[in-house]
TrEMBL record:
Annotated source species: Stackebrandtia albiflava
Name of the molecule in the record: Enamine deaminase RidA (YjgF/YER057c/UK114 family)
CDD domains xrefs: YjgF_YER057c_UK114_like_1
Gene3D superfamilies: RutC-like
One family name in Pfam for this protein: Ribonuc_L-PSP
Phylogenetic placement of the source organism: Bacteria, Bacillati, Actinomycetota, Actinomycetes, Glycomycetales
Source species, domain of life: Bacteria
Amino acid sequence: MDVTARLTELGITLPTVVPPIAAYQPAVRSRDHVYVSGQLPIVDGELLATGLVGDDVTPERAAELARVCALNGLAAVEALVGLASVTRIVKVNGFVASAPGFTGQPAVINGASNLFGDVFGEAGTHARSAVGVAALPLGAPVEVDLVVEVA
């Protein structure tokens, strides 16, 4: 699959890599895997939303933000090894800053998972965790990290 052509077909332009906000790298390769650090919904240096999902942020908006996190993750992979080398999305971890009683984390993280499926087809299906947390860095409502297999 030509990932660049698929992104164009979907009307997706990868963002620039979000610079780390602490002491880590956006992505690191170890043999045939790339480990992508947690990505926040940041575009052009701006965090798109803050707050708790189910209170300050709707689940639908949070799913859109999870998609942004996923795009930022793909940008980190592109910068490190190139998306053409990706053979599979292996694992996605999604974290949702959740209001008390909110239990819709899986639907929120579908925003990221669906993007990977749209871009990579069968190779975009993956193992996943969707976890509710009390707070995330900078007050973000969602964060996504991933592991990808590369050739």
